[in-house]
Every structure is written in C-alpha cells, then in structure tokens.
Amino acid sequence: MRHGAQLAALLLLGACAKPKEERVGPHEAHAASPATAELPQPRGAVTVRTEQGTYSAPSVRFSAEFLEDPPVALMLVALSAQSEDGGTWRFRMPVNEQFVKSKHATARLVPQTALGPGLAVVDSQQGKGPSMAMDEGTLELTVTGNQARGEVRMKDGRVRATFEGPLSVECMVPPAWLSRANAPAAPPAPVPSSPGEGTVRVLDEAQATSQCRSVANAFR
C-alpha cells in the first residue's frame, strides 16, 4: 500500500508540473512582441533609400513594346515606390535593346517628360505636396538575374538615392504576332481593334512570342 501511495503521489506531482513547463511567462511574452510588431518587408520587395526617407515597391518594372511598323522595340525601366507616410519616389528610364544584353544603363537626369535612351526622370513627392523633379545628376542601373539595383547621383558625385529589389518584365506585341504564336495550340482569341493600323498592342503574358520569350529569359 505504501508503494502504491508513493507512485500515485509521484504521478500527481508530474501532472501538476507539466503545465508550468509549457506556460509562457509575462517576461517572455513581452520580449517576443517587438519582433512581431517590426515585421520585415515581404521577401523580394524593392527598397529605396533617400535623404528624405525609405520607400518600397513590389518590383522595378521593365516594359518592352514591339512595333511592327516601324520594326523597332520601345523599352522602359520604371519604378514607383511609396513611403509609410504616403510619400512617393519614382523614376522612368528608357533603354535600348542593348540593355537586354548588357544589363547596365546610365542616364542623365532631366526635368521634362519627353525622354529617350540616355535620359531619365526622377521625381519625389512628400505627402500632398508638389512633385519635385531632379534636374541634374545621373541614374545608374544594373540588373543581375532578376534583381535590379541602382543609384541616383548629383552632378558633384553625391549619392541622393539607392534602390534594390526584383525586376518584373512586361511585354507587348502586335495582335497578329500573338495570334500566330497561339495558333498551333488553340484558335486565335479575339484581339482589340483600332482605327489606326498597327497601333494596337496586346500583352503577351505567357511569353508565347519569340520576342517576349527572349526578353523574359534575359532577366531570369
């Protein structure tokens, strides 16, 4: 009987001790809360760091638009990032087809919106204030795989902003190109029409055309 009473006492003691081991005390809970509140940015988000603060965006966007007449490709790299207080930081930078091979471009900053390769617009806006464009300096961009990074420098060489993050690719082609590319797999889908011949472009989201596939493969 004594042995049985001792065994029952040990089992009762163990049952009482187990919940205490699993309980989280006030100190541990308080220490964990800052990590929960200060969550990092989603993996892959673009981060822009400037003198005014930090901005973020889902990606740096590379857009390619292929024209049939004249047979050229219009390409643009752009970024529109936002800060927690509602401010914005943007750039637009036309590039040529050489950029797809070199993955590097440098442009001179200009305040006007009419752009071409070698020129770029960088502007920012704080809250509901006016948009301010930089009128001097350079924008340098380098892409490695699908990751873009760059910096904006003043004329005197001082760094005004840096950015780094993933590059997304968007490709537009004439409707006939996409219809021909999809013809072996399925009947051509209806495409938009336009009074101006050759002005309509459609998004080749699946990279069915060789032109868009080549661009997308260059930034993988």
TrEMBL record:
Protein name in UniProt: Lipoprotein
* Organism annotation: Corallococcus aberystwythensis
